Amino acid sequence: MKTQMTLLEYLKYYFGFDTFKGDQEAIIRNLLDKKDTFVLMPTGGGKSLCYQLPALLMEGTAIVISPLIALMKNQVDAIKHISDDDNVAHFINSSLNKASITQVKEDIKAGRTKLLYVAPESLTKTEYVEFLRGVNISFYAIDEAHCISEWGHDFRPEYRRIRPIINEIGDAPIIALTATATDKVRIDIKKNLCIMDATEFKSSFNRPNLYYEVRQKTKDVDKDIIKYIKTNPNKSGIIYCLSRKKVEELAEVLKTNDIKAAAYHAGMDSVLRSATQDDFLMERIDVIVATIAFGMGIDKPDVRFVIHYDIPKSLEGYYQETGRAGRDGGEGRCIAFYSHKDLHKLEKFMEGKPVAEQDIGRQLLQETANYCESSVCRRKLLLHYFGEDYHQDNCENCDNCKHPKTRVEAKDDLVLALKTIQAVKENFKIDYIINVLCGKEDVELILAHKHDRLEVFGEGADKEPEYWSAVLNQAMIDGYISKDVDNYGILKLTKSGKRFIKKPTSFMIVENNAFDEDSVDDESAQSSALDEVLHKMLIELRKKLAKKYDVPPYIIFQDPSIDAMTTFYPVTLEELQTIPGVGAGKAKRYGKEFVELIKRHCDENEIERPVDMRVRTVANKSLQKISIIQSIDRQVALDDIALAKGLDFDEFLDELESIVYSGTKINIDYFIEEEIDDDKVDEIYEYFRESETDDLERAFKFLDDDISEEEIRLVRIKFISDLAN
Q1: 212 phi/psi in degrees, rounded to 5
Q2: Which of 14, 145, 191, 630 has its C-alpha lying 20 to 30 A from 315's C-alpha?
Q3: Whole-angstrom Cα distance, residue 548 to residue 273?
Q4: Max Cα separation, the chain?
Q5: What is the pLDDT of residue 71?
Q6: Phi, psi of 372, rounded to the nearest 5 degrees
Q7: C-alpha dihedral over 479, 398, 345, 267, to 10 degrees?
Q8: Contact 237, 287 (CB under 8 A)
């Protein structure tokens, strides 16, 4: 090992920093002493330096196991820039040809290469194992170590083969690094790598500069995102979607609206992916729309916003992805769009997987849903998930803290909840406890265990399940309950919880009503109208026309369409059709009075209209809608049309809703008559005729239990088409 200079001098010499950050120095010294090391450090904390500097100082070559080709190239380029030797770092993966691999091997044999980045798949190849047996290895660094654990947010089976391969190549110290890991994942990583005695370094997960917000996901989510980007010009951002299809669609919509954006996902050609990444780093584009394949290890410090278009599958994944914002300590806004429908869709995706995998997936998903639906400080919830206490009552940098809800005393309810956990022998998960409290007599498991005979059964039936979810989640944060992660989230009482039953004290909670999808509680859920005066005038006009035509107001134009009119000021019928939810038919039928009112308002108040902010749609989507309408005219079964378009039925219903809400009349009676009982159709149809809202969640709660969400959506499409179009 080099010893001519001090560690700080080497830091300055190689990386240009005057001081180490957080635990970096202690981690590096531990590795220089050839001790196994486990590093839990949030994104932006400086993990890579923890193995790069010791690799440059120690004898031999450090093997860095990394999951992504893009990440390897990024880090190898960075190391080469700080060294006067281009051979100091290399990578081996499927992107290299034979000549390049031969050159890498020669540099390693000659002792010129201090860091070799390799994918776990490459590491398992016999030719590389044989070669590395003859190499002096300084240590093994396992980056993104959470990939080892089935409980991690990005499990990769090949990562579980790393230890056996290390045993074949030859023993050397191991440093495992990850930005996100719960206690369960941390233990799983250490067990699998056989480093249970490793020295642990755990940095705080708190990123004070990041602002966390959850917004209701509506049909106009694309418009909301476009508006946000347009009001934050020239700022770098990442938008995460779950499917490649949505990534490509949204990227096209952004580009159509003059936003410098590009798609990025694992299904793209590797050359195009690499070029897109370079364009983002070099600021030739502002926004990347990506699956989670993008961003791991990308060293761009000035990402100013991270938007989740879809609910993430786990809080670990969410934290890791939001962590790519504000790595320079500057502004970083993290906005997630959430709806119950997305939650149900993700649950459906788990069907067909092994039971154990489904249980893990559902528990991780439930944690994310709790985060999205809670009114508690989002920072407090995130840190608690990672086993860290946050003692401030108000972080002042999340939507729930900036717009706090009313807190209520729940001492007696907590006692009841704790007694219920005791009564079922501390052997069940949160949803089961809530079902017992609410007296759900139709749950087979409750009847099988005879828990319907318990004294506590139904004692909490006067309150909604969401309320009990708030009580139990707050009790976990306050340390009265613990979750046994080894047994899929079974709730246990802590010593504090047992003491609370005997001697209750004040226990204040915020009811989890902040994400009722038809509630309006804070700024993010309120009208997004920019012109409140015009908004009131348009609402009055809509009421007048609704009365004239004897239909609910939303039949004329939905709220998001009214909001968009107050933002973009359409003054002709052609311009009105650029408003989301307004098609040619609807513009012709109702539009004249609206555009006249808007024009008069603009003239009287000398308003300069933001023509450039109009949300334009992509032509291909219009062609798809025409094709769907033509198929319906031929009375093709709707599920067959969906199949032909490569859509699942939920996505297909989204398309149908978009068609009818824009003012186009379609007739799906032939399909409804075949699939839905006449009495159900009448009941749903009459509900929408009498209701003041077309909200799906509210309809689902109001209508009979044997009516499915799919049936409601189909009849709602018929209703809108019949009455409005």
Answers
A1: -105, 135
A2: 191
A3: 55
A4: 89
A5: 67
A6: -65, -35
A7: -120
A8: yes
Measured CA angle at 659 (ends 720, 670), to 5 deg: 65
Q: Give the DSSP H/E element, type plus range, for residue 435.
A: helix 430-438
- The burial class, CB within 10 Å (0-12 / 13-18 / 19+), for 602 is middle
For 417, 423, 436, 614, the CA distances from 453, given in Å and listed in that order, are 16, 11, 10, 61
Burial of residue 590 (CB within 10 Å: 0-12, 13-18, 19+) is: buried
Strands 508-510 and 407-409 come out as antiparallel
Burial 117-153 (b: 16+ CB within 10 A, else e): bbbbebbbeeebeebbeebebbbbbbbbbbbbbebbb
Structure tokens belonging to residue 521: 């509680």
Distances (CA, A) of 184 to 181, 378, 444, 489, 594: 8, 22, 30, 11, 58
Is 70 exceeded by the pLDDT of residue 382? Answer: yes
* Integer Cα distance of 51 and 72 in angstroms: 14
What CA–CA distance (Å, rounded) separates 396 from 380?
Answer: 11
pLDDT tens track for 273-304? 888 888 888 788 999 999 875 554 456 778 99
Query: Both tokens of residue 381?
Result: 């919830």
Closest to 434 (Cα-Cα) out of 446, 425, 448, 449: 446
**What are 304's two structure tokens?**
């100013």
Integer CA distances (angstroms), 343 to 241, 307, 336, in order: 14, 17, 13
d(C-alpha 277, C-alpha 629), whole Å? 39
Give the residue-averaged pLDDT of 139-155.
76
| pLDDT tens digits for range 522-548 | 333 334 446 788 988 998 998 888 888
Separation CA 573–CA 595 (nearest Å): 7
Average pLDDT over residues 368-380: 86
Q: Which tokens sit at 170?
A: 């030859």
Alpha-carbon Rg of the chain, whole angstroms?
29
Q: What structural domains and CATH numbers belong to the chain?
A: 7-202 (3.40.50.300), 210-402 (3.40.50.300), 407-510 (1.10.10.10), 532-613 (1.10.150.80), 619-724 (1.10.10.1390)
Residue 353 structure tokens: 């997987």
pLDDT at 369 (0 to 100): 83
- How distant, in Å, are the alpha carbons of 280, 378, 400, 537, 692 from that of 521? 36, 16, 10, 23, 19
Q: Residue 116 belongs to what H/E stretch?
A: strand 115-118
* The residue type at 454: L
Residue showing tokens 């080709």: 69
Burial 396-426 (b: 16+ CB within 10 A, else e): ebbbbbeeeeeeeebeebbbbbbbbbeebee
- Rounded to whole angstroms, what are the CA distances from 12 to 207, 267, 659? 26, 41, 61
pLDDT at 517 over 50: no
For strands 210-216 and 89-92, give the pairing. Answer: unpaired
